[in-house]
Structures are given as structure tokens and as C-alpha cells.
Write a structure and sequence with these properties.
single chain, alpha/beta, two-stranded parallel ribbon
């Protein structure tokens, strides 16, 4: 799984990062680092949030209404409020729900393009892992042209040196 850390202060980043690293979740503070993060972690200070894609959100706030200010989450998101410090039982149940969201279609409909892109990026990464980053062999395994694979790797921000 991949997480985008958005609007966290240094203390929050330190705490959240160590937990996510411990449980093996890739994470970063730059959205461009991940083409499609599995979920977003919002800092306590974030009061408004909007993305084009429907991505689950874990907020470090205690609730939608924090000290008289309401949090404005625009769009159809699944939002969990998990203030720090995180308890393993609470976090594991939230992550389990997030994983289930990816395996079952949403009741409101499925963004087919999003799911196809996610699957395509996953298959490309798996092919590169199995070939230790050799693009021509990965293209053969995927039964596509090498140049097509290179273009798709650019589109999904996949660097062969990762493998």
C-alpha cells in the first residue's frame, strides 16, 4: 500500500512515518511521488481537502468539527478520524477497511479508468521486479513493445532503477 502525507507538521510526519514504515506502507509528502496512493493522511491543521480521484482519507483530527471550525472534505471520500497517537487496533481496522475498498466496487459506481490505470501500473511493476528492472524482458513478459512499456512507465512515474 502507498500513502500520501498531506499537511502534516514535523512532529506528525515523524510519528506517522515511523508507524507506516514499521508496518510496511510506502509513504511520502509529495503527491507526485505516487501516481495513485491507496490512501491519504491529513494533518490536524488541514481544514479543506479535495482530489479528483476517490481516495480514502485518514485525518489526524478528532472529528469533522475541531474547535469550532468544521473540516471541509469536498467530494465522495471515505474518511476516518484517527488522532495521534495511533493505537494498533484502531489503525489495523482502518487499513483493513481501506484494503476492502480496493477489492469491492463502490456502491456509487466504479471509476473504470482509475482501476485500469492502477492495475496496469501494478502489472508493470511486477514485470520489472521479475526481470530485475530489465525493460526489454519486462516488455516481452507483458507482450508489448519496449517503447510502449517505456511510455507507460513515464505515465505512471515508474523508474526502472527502483527494481
Amino acid at each position: 500500500m502507498k500513502a500520501w502525507l498531506c499537511g502534516l507538521d514535523d512532529e506528525e510526519i515523524s510519528s506517522v512515518s515511523s508507524i507506516l514504515t514499521f508496518i510496511g506502507i510506502e509513504h511520502g509528502t509529495s503527491l507526485t511521488a505516487f501516481h495513485l496512493p491507496d490512501f491519504v493522511v491529513l494533518g490536524k491543521s488541514v481544514r479543506s481537502f479535495e482530489l479528483d480521484e476517490m481516495i480514502p482519507v485518514i485525518s489526524l483530527c478528532e472529528s469533522m468539527d475541531v474547535v469550532g471550525e468544521s473540516m471541509d472534505v469536498v467530494g465522495d471520500y471515505n474518511v476516518w478520524f484517527c488522532p495521534l497517537p495511533w493505537r494498533s487496533q484502531i489503525l489495523s481496522s482502518v487499513l483493513k477497511e481501506i484494503k476492502q475498498l480496493h477489492t469491492f466496487p463502490q456502491a456509487s459506481g466504479v471509476n473504470l479508468n482509475l482501476h485500469v490505470r492502477h492495475l496496469e501500473a501494478l502489472l508493470i511493476r511486477q514485470a520489472l521486479v521479475s526481470t530485475q528492472g530489465v525493460v526489454s524482458k519486462a516488455a516481452q513478459n507483458l507482450q508489448i513493445q519496449r517503447t510502449t512499456l517505456i511510455e507507460k512507465m513515464r505515465r505512471y512515474n515508474i523508474d526502472k532503477s527502483e527494481f
